[in-house]
Structure formats: structure tokens, C-alpha cells
Amino acid sequence: METRSDFDSTGTSKQVLSHLSAVLVSGSDARRFLHAQLSADIQDLAVGASCLAAYCSPQGRVLAVIGCLVRSETDFLLITHRTLAATLAQRLSMYVLHAAVEIGPAPQARRLAAVVADAGAGISLWRHPLDPARALVEAAEGHAVPVPAIDALQWRLSDIRAGLAWINAESSGRYLPQMLGLDVIGAVSYTKGCYPGQEVIAKAHYLGRVKRRLAWASGTIDAGTIGAEPMSIGDINWPMPLQAAEDTGLPATAGNIVDGVVCNGSLNALAVVPEAVLGKMLNLHINSRQVALKLEAVRFDLTLPHGRE
Asked: What is the separation, in whole angstroms, between the first and last Cα of the chain?
């Protein structure tokens, strides 16, 4: 963890999370509107509270993983992958109709910075529901963030280890929330009522029809395979398919990596895979090289408040 807290002249401090962006939703009907659009319970969130949620298609597939911050009774910040922010704002705007709601991207001059949560008194923070010690804060380019910073790579590694996959535009619309573990980490409410995809998602939950799950994928990787370290899988090309050896009896393509980082010769990633491959080794092909990865079921921390309905 770092103690530096300022941006350089280009706004590329190590604490800036370049893979994330934000959408602003404001107006007197903003809370009611978001409660009807997102998978989490937004209605009962207090001002200053944070949560995780999914924005889904009518078919129940996750279009975006979202971190929601209630900045005031009429002002909400939605954090999502940078490749999805504009699409999210555009799609939400289609359903505003006559509601008193305004939707738009956060100003380009403001970035999302990773900081120590407990040091943020008096600052509007999105406190990480999976790790109370971490938070995100909006920061203007060229201006100091008056709280201790967290290195962006360390933030991404922590998200991977916590089982939070920030899917990008290529993964959007592919997975049910349960396949990404979003129901386990409190991003899905089964009691709140209707929202896009709610019926499909509820049926999958109550009838147990989800056959793919989120898994940790880890292995040793040569830096020369993908270029200079550290870097994210997302900076290369993902989702990336995982291949099973011919003698395993598993499908040739046995899942996809949806998020990950490479650091100190190790690849740490999250993959959506059939339950049958958990505990097994699969292969990832990058730049014509093969990397062997071990697949393990994600063990979510159910002691945090997010683990309770």
C-alpha cells in the first residue's frame, strides 16, 4: 500500500483505476428509477452507502457489473468497466420516460482513485463492499487526493482474490449473475421485486439451473509471453477461452477468463467455467504459447454484511 496521494500532470498516478469509469444518475426520481433497473436493493441504501449490483438484459444476462454510491438523496454514482459506461448511460436513458432523472457520464476530467477507506472522512467515497479497508474516490486531474492511496495493481489483485469480476464490453450479455457469483456477494436481491431479467434470475436461483460458476485461475507465466509486467489480462484480449487436454474427457473449450492481472510472474484471474472442471488444470493460449492454469472454486467471504439477504 502506498502513502502518495497526488496525480501527476497527466492524471496517470499509480492509484488511478483506468479500467473503471462512472455514470451519474441524478434527480428526484433517481432512487426509485435505479431500484427498478438494478438487481440490488437501492431503495433502502442510506446516503453515503455503497453496494454492488448488476444491470441485466430481459434474458437475465449481466450487461454490466456496477458499484453504486448514494452521494445524496438525488445523486447516485454508478461505477462500471470503462468499456461499458457510455452504453450503460445510453441504455438507462431509454427507460427514463417521464421520470425526473438525468443520466450522463462523469466528467472526463475526473478519475476514479483507489484510497484507504478509513482515511476518507468528509470525502464522498465508494466503500468496497467486499473489503471495508478499500474505497474509490473521484479526483480531478492534476489535483491531490487528500487521503492515503492504494496502488491500482494491488486493487485489481484484491478484487480478483475477493471474487469480483468487472466484466467488459466483450463479456457483456453472456452470463447470469449467479455465474459471476454476484448473488453470493450481495449484488442480487431475491426479495426486492421486478427489474430487467428478474424472472429468469429468480428461476435459476430457486430451480438450481446454473451449471457454470466463477473460479480462480492461477498459474506461472513468462513475462515474455505477453510483454512487460505488470499488466492486466484486459489490456490484451478477453474474454479468453480455456482449453482442456484431449485425454480429460472435457469439452475442448471449457470456460473463459473474464478478468485478471499478471504480476511477478504469476497470472491471477477469474473464469466462468462448468462445475465439472473445478479442481482441474486447463490451458490458456497467449501469443501462441500455452499456459497451464489451476481452477479452484471462489471462496467468498460470507462474514461481511454483503453475504446476508
From this structure: 32
Pairs from 277-280 (Cβ < 8 Å, separation ≥ 24): 277/215, 277/242, 277/244, 277/250, 278/213, 278/215, 280/244, 280/248, 280/250
Alpha-carbon gap, residue 157 to 137, rounded angstroms: 19
| Helix residue ranges per DSSP H, the chain | 30-37, 85-93, 152-162, 198-207, 223-226
In sequence order, what are the residues at sequence separation of 6 or more whose Cβ sits closer than 8 angstroms to the Cβ of residue 207? none
Compute the CA torsion angle 224, 227, 229, 235 (nearest 10 deg): -140
Let me know: does 131 contact 162? Beta carbons within 8 Å.
yes
Whole-number pLDDT of residue 141: 66
pLDDT digits (tens, 9 = 90+) for 67-111: 999 999 999 999 999 999 999 999 999 999 999 999 987 765 568
Q: Is residue 188 within 8 Å of 258, Cβ to Cβ?
A: no
Q: Which domains does the chain possess?
A: 20-178 (3.30.70.1400), 212-297 (2.40.30.110)
> Which residues have C-beta within 8 Å of that of residue 57, sequence separation ≥ 6?
63, 173, 196, 197
Grid cell of 228 as nine digits: 512487460
Amino acid residing at 67: G
Spatial strand order in the sheet of 110-116: 110-116, 134-140, 125-127
pLDDT in tens, 180-216: 999 999 999 999 989 999 999 999 999 988 889 999 9
Q: What is the largest CA-CA distance in the chain?
A: 60
CB atoms within 10 A of CB 12: 13
pLDDT tens digit string along 100-124?
Answer: 999 987 765 568 888 887 765 556 7
Q: CB within 8 A of 228, min separation 6: which ones? A: none
